[in-house]
TrEMBL record:
<protein>
    <recommendedName>
        <fullName>carbonic anhydrase</fullName>
        <ecNumber>4.2.1.1</ecNumber>
    </recommendedName>
</protein>
<keyword id="KW-0456">Lyase</keyword>
<comment type="similarity">
    <text>Belongs to the beta-class carbonic anhydrase family.</text>
</comment>
<keyword id="KW-0862">Zinc</keyword>
<dbReference type="InterPro" id="IPR001765">
    <property type="entry name" value="Carbonic_anhydrase"/>
</dbReference>
<keyword id="KW-0479">Metal-binding</keyword>
<dbReference type="GO" id="GO:0004089">
    <property type="term" value="F:carbonate dehydratase activity"/>
</dbReference>
<dbReference type="Pfam" id="PF00484">
    <property type="entry name" value="Pro_CA"/>
</dbReference>
<dbReference type="InterPro" id="IPR036874">
    <property type="entry name" value="Carbonic_anhydrase_sf"/>
</dbReference>
Amino acid sequence: MDSIHSILEHNEQFVSSKSYESYLSSGIPNKKLVVVTCMDTRLTELLPRAMNLRNGDAKIIKNAGAVISHPYGSVMRSVLVALYELQAEEVIVCGHYGCGMAALNADHMINEIKERGISPEILTTLEHSGIDLKTWLQGFGDEKNGVMKSVDMIKNHPLLPPHVPVHGMIIDPSTGQLELLVNGYEQQKSSI
């Protein structure tokens, strides 16, 4: 059976047995948190448990590397929506050790893109449109540095509400151990 039909078959059983009832919550995060983290599969269940987050406690935004690459991109927009419209009051950026984005090589990925059938003409068109694929597809060299850059992007955003703490953490995907890199409360005190 293919993935989509397997998912739908499971879903039918999930709904008919009312398994969803233990996940019911409102759209407002109980702990008033928005968490930006990596899409790494090791973090799917580990990160919420390591942070003591249950369903409904936080808005969790996942993308490759927990990177906010553009101040007006979809990740930053999601952070602002959580803060202004969904009653979140704090932001946590949580990267992880062994992140694939740290080792991402743009040249290798561009070669993979070509091998999977994307024509050189499309790549040339993108290049002529001002899109620098090598920059866009480049990873970061150090996981902690990646977290710090995302924290800085949020903290220095002109639309960030005043007095919102922005924290930076990194998690060990093997053990769940969290390391605090930026204490947003201390950052707030030093700016007062």
